[in-house]
Amino acid sequence: MRQTPIVLALIADWHLGFSFAGIARRDPDLARQLRQQQAASVETVFRRAEEAGVRLLLIAGDLFDSARPAPEDLLRVIDAAAARPHLTVVLAPGNHDPFYPDGYAADPRWPASVHRLAPEGGRLVFPELGVTVDGAGFAQMIEEENRFTGFRQPIPPSQLAVCLLHADLDPPGGRSLYRPLSSREPWLGAYDLVALGHQHSPLVRQIGSGRCGELRYPGPPLATTFVDAQAKGLWLAEARPSGGAGWRLDWRVLDLPGPRFVRRTLDLGGVREDRELMARLVRLAAVPERAAGPCLLELVLEGARVPELVLDEALVEQRLGRLGWDWVQVADRSRPAPQFGAGHAAGGFAQLLGEAAARLGEAEPPERVAGALGRIASLLAAAEAENR
Ligand SMILES: [Mn+2]
């Protein structure tokens, strides 16, 4: 039996070639810096993997942001892999970068060490590594069903059994446009590791049957949007036979230089005036320590906002920017008070309701104001419908 453990790395949702267009509209320099960091991360990831003794690099889809990556993005990955022929790479294309017969996955310049799993599914046996990798790439951008359910031929217990897939694990209601996969499907018992991409957050679930392996999302190695706020870096595992039914995997994560996308939430329910709002924002928006790359903040506002609270988003972004953030954006999900702006078809009744809403904010505790404002808003909507 093998004495030294197999070292492997798992990557998903890298989204190389992402445009950062939303950031570029307001801050072209920051967008350029993010694109450069993303491009540089390709060599960094391959180098760090090599230095850590990784023999097998698994890429669970959405390596590229697009099915037609820019030539320089494709070449960066091809070159980084070609420079390390002893690092075996297996790629299962995802919904962003599906396996088209004439696309990047079929490019003849890929070195022999990089295996791309086709939509019909495949089994790759690496006797020198002691690993078998099964899996299938996406054939198109939407697949409302996962057709890959493994192979009948069992993998010998002496081999680490891996399934590599881009799939949506346990989606709400069991339905998804990106290969819904239930963690209870019996065929998963054939694997020590079901390596997944798509959900952009690190997650692990144990498989309760067969080899009693695990389902794992690594999250992206490098964040590209606020969806990636949980991104941790490059996930590595040492795999060794457990002595029982399957293999044991011990995971650790290598921190990579890059941007920090941070999301923080403020409940406006208890906030009564602008000064208090600013004080809370400043407390909430402390910049994280040890941040090497740019720091981007999304401030999410929740709760019921009292009507006299004037929230100037530009002012908030400016004030928080002074705390050291490279980017601040406000996502207002608070329930707004009824609007009585100019040009509104507001008659006397609407005026009355508006004044009542303002008085409520002065006199009542916020938790009661919330319900009353909702009532006022529906009365106003009914009044408007009548006027139409
Ligand atoms: Mn993705």
Describe what this molecule looks like in 3D.
Helices cover 26% and strands 23% of the residues. By secondary structure, the chain is α/β, with parallel strands linked by helices. Helix 2 (28-51) packs parallel to helix 3 and helix 6 (348-363) runs antiparallel to helix 7. The radius of gyration is 26 Å and the shape is elongated. The model is unreliable at 340-346 (pLDDT under 50).
In summary, what is this structure?
This protein is of the alpha/beta class. The protein is 26% helix and 23% strand. It folds into three domains: 249 residues, Metallo-dependent phosphatases (Purple Acid Phosphatase, chain A, domain 2), CATH 3.60.21; 78 residues, 2-Layer Sandwich (Translation Initiation Factor IF3); 48 residues.
Q: What descriptive keywords fit this protein?
A:
23% strand; 26% helix; 388 residues; Translation Initiation Factor IF3; alpha/beta; six-stranded mixed sheet; 3 domains; binds manganese (II) ion; Purple Acid Phosphatase, chain A, domain 2; 7 helices
